[in-house]
Amino acid sequence: MYDVNRVREDFPILTRQIYGRPLVYLDNGATTQKPRQVVEAMVDEYYNVNANVHRGVHFLSQQATELHEASRETVRRFINARSTAEIVFTRGTTESINLLAFSLGEAMVKEGDEVVVSAMEHHSNIVPWQMMCERKGAQLRVIPMTDEGELQLEALEGLLTKRTRIVCCTQVSNVLGTVNPVKEVVRIAHEKGVPVLVDGAQSVPHMPVDVQDLDCEFFAFSGHKVYGPTGVGVLYGKEEWLDKLPPYQGGGEMIKNVTFEKTTYNELPYKFEAGTPDYVATHALAKALDYVSGLGMEKIETHEQELTRYALERLQAIEGMHIFGAAQQRDAVISFQVGNIHHLDMGTLLDRLGIAVRTGHHCAEPLMRRLGIEGTVRASFGLYNTKSEVDALAEGIERVRRMF
Length: 404
Ligand code: 7TS
Prior knowledge:
By secondary structure, the chain is an alpha/beta fold. The chain has two domains: 4-27 and 296-403, Aspartate Aminotransferase, domain 1; 40-293, Aspartate Aminotransferase, domain 2 (3-Layer(aba) Sandwich), CATH 3.40.640. The chain has helices spanning 4-8, 36-48, 59-79, 93-108, 127-136, 153-159, 182-191, 211-214, 239-244, 279-295, 297-316, 343-352, 365-371, 387-403; strands at residues 17-18, 21-22, 24-25, 87-90, 114-118, 139-143, 164-170, 196-199, 218-222, 233-237, 255-258, 263-265, 321-324, 333-338, 355-356, 358-360, 376-380. The strands form five sheets. It has a seven-stranded mixed β-sheet with strand order 4-10-9-8-7-5-6, with helices on both faces. Strand 13 (321-324) and strand 14 form a beta hairpin. The chain binds ligand 7TS. Residues 29-30, 92-94, 122, 124-125, 170, 174, 199, 201-202, 222, 358, 362-363 line the site of ligand 7TS.
């Protein structure tokens, strides 16, 4: 069985009091808290191992390199990539997508070409593509969604043309909680020979992910949203696709030979990893993935699904409650508004009760426009949240509602 109270003991921050009340942390979509196992791995590496990777003959450098490369193998196993050559370490989802947009743009996008994104993307899966389109004279096309917050896949088929260079789609919406049928998106895109990037920032922390099963060409996620450290993330790419792309940044690590006349590039994945990587963070990310694997991704998913069902029930019972998104498949994110109480007021007053939620447009302004709103209050759950925390949220919202 999943013992959430036992799990909570691994997260020291959860015992904090905020304004004299126990912290109720419901902003996991923005970032997750870190278990001891992750923080201690970082402290231990800085105290006992620290040395730059891939360049020393000395003992510490070799040990740091072994930890760093073992972490790549942990990531490979976690998302079931074929090879560690397909695992590129980046600073996070945002950098992963910028890397891909730049390199793919350089290699294969010409004037008049098209890039398809969905209506519910985070800015980091819109703006890098827009920037590339501007540079190349290409066009952005958008997969529409229903009022329930589900992608209209029939429309996707019509959007794909001979000029489509890539389809970019989030697996889970950070606003609506919609779990998109990305496997189906990939199948439809592949019928026209178009590669797919899946943004896994909001899926990797909540469900088992298998990139070979999804069959997507590219997959991006962030360490800090899956109980790992900040400043590290991953771009997965099928080897034959990464091979075709030029480097994103130049510098150390990414070269084979350099002369003033010509530089040849390193093999995968190092071709995309210029400069000293955050090798302490990669090691800690592996510890975080070991941690969630140890608990079991299926068990985490079941726990969070149950919590989300319970939260939907409790929140829907509140007078004036409007919940955005009603997808059949949904994840541990609930965006809402109560009557005409401004989301910022709701967030601020909940904070006074020790409840951390997010307010605003959640870096998805086009989605806000589609919904005809400026922002929402968002509660997003993690593996350590409990039903009594959901009760605290529901009672808190009720209290704020009565105040207005
Ligand atoms: N993609 C999705 C779907 C996201 O939710 C986020 C961050 C990103 C990409 C960017 O991740 P980063 O680690 O590179 O910043 N989403 C949120 C959020 O919902 N609240 O704060 C950050």
